[in-house]
Structure formats: C-alpha cells, structure tokens
Amino acid sequence: MKFMQKSASILLTILAVKSAQALPQYNLGDKVLGGTVVYINKSGTHGYIAANQDQGRGVRAFKAHEYCMDFAYFNDEEQDYTDWMLPPLFVLKSMYEQRAEIGGFDSKKYYMAGGFKIDEFPGVSFAFATNEEWHVKIFTFVNVRCVRWF
C-alpha cells in the first residue's frame, strides 16, 4: 500500500511539473490574448491583460462595469474574449506605471472594481494625471479600461 501511495505521489509531482512547464510565459508589455500584459506573477504564467483602448470615457461610476460586458466597446481582437472586467486597484497602478508603453490613456480618473452604497464613498478610482487614488460616489464621471485574467 505504501508503494502505491509513493508511486501516486511521484506521478502527481511529475504531472504538476510538466503542466507548469507547458504554460506560456509572458512579459510586461507583451501584446497577447486581446490586449497588453500589464501585470504578471513571479513565474510569468498568470496575470492581467488590459484592453488596448478605453471602453468608456466620462462614464458614470455606477455604470462602469457595463462597459466591460458590452462588445460594442471593444475592437475585433478584444471581442474574441468574454471575460473582461474592471481592474483591481493594484492592476490600475501597474497600468499607470506602464501608461507610455500601453498608450491611449486619458489624464482623468480610471475606475476600479468595487461595490457601491449610495451615501458613502465606496468606489475608488485612480487619477492618471496625479498618480493618486480617489474615493468616488456613484454619479462621478470616470474612465473605463477593462482587463482580463490569464
């Protein structure tokens, strides 16, 4: 019985290593999978890809997520993917750091993923003009640049 458990453990380890070796590795700025790689993990196998242009400018914050779900706001290559979403704040900051390489950013606030409560400051945006986080209410105008996970 111990031999079978040991054999199974070795086989799983081999499969895990083979599987990890088979994953493509990307670098920041690579143009792949419908956009530009803007964040990657240490192994280069997982991260976020930003769309190549804004999906909306001057959008009410409470409607920002809708722009990531409507193909009308994406180019032909981006339309091949259906898993676009609003970026988390750390990804927005990474996009800011690479804004010159990615291109097409406005200097206004870009909205991040988050929820809303009407009388509070629940949403957060990131101002590309000043490199600052801003708390926003639902009727604030923001820009939208969607991302996807790989």
Search tags:
Mannose-Binding Protein A, Chain A, 9 strands, alpha+beta, globular, three-stranded antiparallel sheet, four-stranded antiparallel sheet, 150 residues, 23% helix
Verbal overview:
The structure is a single chain. With 150 residues, the chain is an alpha+beta fold. It has a single domain, classed as Mannose-Binding Protein A, Chain A (Roll). It is built from 3 helices and 9 strands. The protein has helices spanning 2-22, 89-97, 99-102, and strands spanning 31-32, 35-40, 47-50, 56-60, 109-111, 123-127, 132-136, 141-144, 147-149. The strands form 3 sheets. A 4-stranded antiparallel beta sheet has the order 1-2-3-9. Strands 5-6-7 form a 3-stranded antiparallel beta sheet, with helices on one face. A two-stranded antiparallel sheet has the order 4-8. A hairpin with a 2-residue loop joins β1 (31-32) and β2 (35-40). The protein is globular, with a radius of gyration of 19 Å. The N and C termini lie far apart (39 Å).
